[in-house]
Amino acid sequence: MKPLYKLMVLGAALLTSCSKSDDEAAAPDYNQLPATVQEHWFGYQSLMKLSYADDQIATYLGPDMDTTLHYFNPAVSKIWQYTKATYGEFGADPRLRLYLHDKEYMTGNGLTATLANYMDNICDYKNAVVVSSTMWKDTAVMTAVFTHEISHIVEGGSLSIKYSPTAKLWGDSKFQDIFIYDCYLNTGMTALADAWLAEYQTNYATYPLAKTYWFRDWWYPVYSKYGQTKVLTNYFRLLSENLDHQPNGNGFQEYTQDVNMGEFVHFMSGAAGVNLKEQAKLAFGWSMEYEQQFLNAQEDYPNVKYNKQ
Length: 309
What we know:
By secondary structure, the protein is an alpha/beta fold.
C-alpha cells in the first residue's frame, strides 16, 4: 500500500559549452530493467528473476513459480495501461512491477496479495503488486486479484496525491467492486465483465449495515446512470480540488483528512451531477448523523456542484 520509484541522480560532468551544470540530474533510464531483483519488502526476501516486460509491466518470478504461466501478463498490461489513461500517470516510471510467488510466502486461504505505489519507498518507489498464491491456474480469480491491487494504487495515489481519504469508509475495498468491472468493460474482457456483474448482484459487505450491497445498490446504479467511468474519475478529481493536502516528508502531496459518509455522498453527488442522497439511503441506510454530515459537507465544500434539493 505505498508508492515507489526512486529518481536516480547522476553526477553531471562539465564537458563543453553545452554541458549540464553541476546541480542538474540526468533522467532515469526506465528502459533498463535489472535481470534480478532482491526482495526486501513485506517480509519477502527472495531473489526474483525477470520473466516478462513490455511498455506497461515488468514481471519478476520467485524461485517456486511455474514459469510456463503467462496469461496474466497481457491482461495486467492492458489494465495498467487503461488505468493510467483513465486516472492519470502514477509517477514517471511507466511500468507496474509484478513480484510473483507460488506458496513461498502464502498465508491464510491460499492467497496473499499486497501493493505499493510510487510515493513510498516500500518497493523502491515503484508501483508494484506482490502476490503469493496457490491459485495461479484460476485465471478469473487471479486477474481479479491483480486488478484489485491496482484499485488500491488508484485510490491511494491518483492525481499525484498520496493516501485514500475514503479507505476507512469503503474498507479493503468496496471501490474495487466497480473499478474491476469498469476495467474489464473497457479493456475488451467482456466475459469477465459479464461474470463480475452477475456475481456482484449478491455480493455484500457487513458495513455500514449488516448486509450492504455496495455494487448492486450503490456503485452500479450510479455508474450506469451518471457517466460510467467519468463518475469515478470525477470523484477523485473533486477530492483533489477540495480536500486539504500538504507536502509530506518525502516531498509528495498527501491528504490530511478522511471523508465521512455525508461527505462521501456529497462528493459522489458532485461527480454524478445529481443529488445521490436517496440512492445512499437505499444502499447504506440514512441516520441523523449521516444527514448532518451531508448538510455540513454541502456547507464546507460549496464548490462541489449539483442540485442539492
